[in-house]
Amino acid sequence: MKSKKFLLAAFAVLFAVTFAACGGGDEPDPEPVDPDVLDISGGEDTPNGIHFNGLYYLLEGTTATVNKADEEVIDVTVPMKVKRSGNVYTVTTIGNRAFYMCQGLANVSMSSSIEEIGEAAFSGCTSLTIITIPARVKEIKKNCFSSTGLKSVEMPTGLEKIGDYAFNGSPLNEQTKMSSGITEIGNYAFYGCSLVNLKSLPAYIQKIGNLAFYDCKFTELSFPSSLTQMGERAFGDSSLKSVTTPANLKVLPKGAFQYCNNLETISIEGVTEIGEDAFQWCQKLKKVYIPLSVIKIGKAAFFDCSELAEVSISSNVKNIENFAFSNCYKLREVTCYGTNPPTLGTNEPFTPTYASSNKLYVPKGYVNAYKNKGYSTYFGKFIEL
After folding, report:
1. DSSP run (H or E) holding 15
2. Is residue 10 part of a domain?
3. What was the pLDDT predicted at 204?
């Protein structure tokens, strides 16, 4: 009997030691959860990608793309990484039209892993009022944020290009600052945006597209010397009060500042050609000096500047095209410094309405030279300087 009790006691001790060695019966520690990784293993496979929590993910190699979103999404957090079947993918791309016309989308947080935002990715998101673009994004592509409700946008320092129609039709009426690294702004990029607080263009901007800032509400804007190419009507119908063009911009394109009804002063040193309609209908412009750099004043360049009363034209101007100063009814005195009179266009480069009393100031001894070039049609009084 004693032998039996001894065996039971020994067995109990052995079991206790073994139990302790195995961790005392506790559950195994759970696998640590990485907060930057979203497990989408339970998502549904669809032609648009794996559908999980309102977003569709395309997985390829080691990366993932947010390819599409449910139209009814409101608050979206784009993860840094997603996991499926034990494999982890870094989310690097917001696909073309991914959130297109998600009109209820109000908040978007994109992870720092995002490198590319596709064309029209957020176009038509009318409830989206603010966004921060991740630091790795180099280009805002065509129509990316067009027709949204964006009031402000935070751009990364590494951003280099803003594509065509990028913010077209979005309010952008609060503080918006462009990063200094931007070198190109596309056609219609900010067409119809307010940008009322914008004071300066990016420090290294080289090219601005057609109608890029048409109908914007800024009243002052500095142009860096890096700007060499400006598109047609780039700043037309804006609220600018003064303009000083950059030294390296040689051609003012067609309609560059057309319909800028608040424009009062201009300085265009360095410009060699004033393009067609460049300052057409700038109705508060009263005085213009055409500098030595200018060779040509284009068609209708100052057409219908109703308050323009004083114009001085330097000696290097060779051509004044049709309607250049036509319909400027207060322009009754013009000074030309050239001993070789500029060639006039055949259709009203100046308004002939008050020709008999209009005055033209010319270099001493060159009255006949100007009369012989057709200036008598527009000026009845020639006065030597």
Report:
1. helix 2-21
2. no
3. 96
Is 155 within the bounds of a domain?
A: no
Q: Indicate the pLDDT class of residue 11, thresholds 50, 70 and 90.
A: very low
| Structural contact between residues 263 and 284, judged by C-beta atoms closer than 8 angstroms | yes
Q: Indicate the pTM of the whole model.
A: 0.90
Q: Is residue 305 part of a domain?
A: yes
**Over residues 311-318, mean pLDDT:** 98
Distance of CA 324 to the CA centre of its chain: 31
Token output for 124:
């038509």
DSSP designation for 380 = S
> Is 177:200 a contact under the CB 8 Å cutoff?
no
Number of H helices and E strands in the chain, helices first, is 2, 29
Report the CATH number that the domain containing residue 379 is assigned in CATH. Answer: 3.80.10.10
The answer to whether 128 and 108 have CB atoms below 8 angstroms apart is yes
- Has residue 250 been placed in a domain? yes
Range of the domain at 312: 240-385
**pLDDT (tens digit, 9 = 90+) per residue, 139-148?**
999 999 999 9
Using DSSP bridges, classify how beta strands 44-46 and 49-52 pair: parallel, antiparallel or unpaired: antiparallel
